[in-house]
Amino acid sequence: MKIRKTHAENINIIMNIYDDAKLFMTETGNGNQWINGYPSRELIMDDISKGNSYVCIDDNDETVGTFCFIRGDDPTYSVIYDGKWLNDDPYGVIHRLAGRRNSRGIAAACLQWCFEQCGNIRVDTHRDNIVMQNILMKNGFIRCGTVIIANGTERIAFQRTVNREQ
What we know:
7-stranded mixed beta sheet, 7 strands
């Protein structure tokens, strides 16, 4: 799996991947996470223009996944409830991770790539997104507590770090 920055001309493919991911999420009991047009084309174009959007390319040179990776503080993570972060060191954040339904290993490849870029990663997901919660824990992430995202809803917060506390 190759990972590279997203180019603006990839936007239609990316939006199709998000549409596919939303269907999968609904089918697996998580119909409330990406709703009301989220993620919007404008948001993804903003990610691309800031250099924070990435695509996953399989061995057949097909785009099979996408995600947003940002180094630096995320205001969403400034307050955590019912727990605590593993550390207060500089971190990277993963948002909007999605893959084509028939492709395997996308999430693990993305998570590992991000961890190689920055050995301290934070991520959040909806309480109904059991699939993502399991993927995160399988890939060494620790459940740290709850955060409130911009729309006022709760998300389960996870972190993986080189120096994680057990």
